[in-house]
Specification:
The protein has a domain of 66 residues: SH3 type barrels (Roll). Helix content is 0%, strand content 45%.
Length: 104
């Protein structure tokens, strides 16, 4: 998976198609990502011992990784990424359209 935490991504499928945000959490076992302030769902909770108030709570649900793409700041759109070997033998991701590096 070429996505990392804090990457800026754009949703390319689903109810939030076209919106972008930062990756908050990656669930590798299920190939899913949680993006900040996107794919919000409502959960109904009862008052409990640890939380004093019940009600309807909005929280972020996960998206399948196939529904998000890396967002290039220079191109200002969702782009495919590639991996390039750097001079110090480390790998770096780059935008295939404008050659901009994502890992700096």
């Amino acid at each position: 998976m070429q996505l990392k935490k804090d990457d800026k991504v754009m949703v390319i499928g689903g109810k939030d198609k076209g919106k972008s945000g930062k990756i908050k959490k990656i669930i590798h076992a299920k190939n899913r990502v949680v993006v900040e302030k996107l794919n919000l769902v409502k959960r109904h909770t009862k008052p409990g011992v640890d939380q004093t108030q019940g009600g309807i709570i909005e929280k972020e649900a996960s998206l399948h990784r196939s529904n998000v793409m890396l967002y290039c700041e220079k191109c200002e759109k969702a782009v495919r990424s590639g991996v390039r070997k750097m001079s110090d033998n480390s790998n770096a991701r780059y935008c295939k359209k404008c050659e901009e590096l994502f890992d700096k």
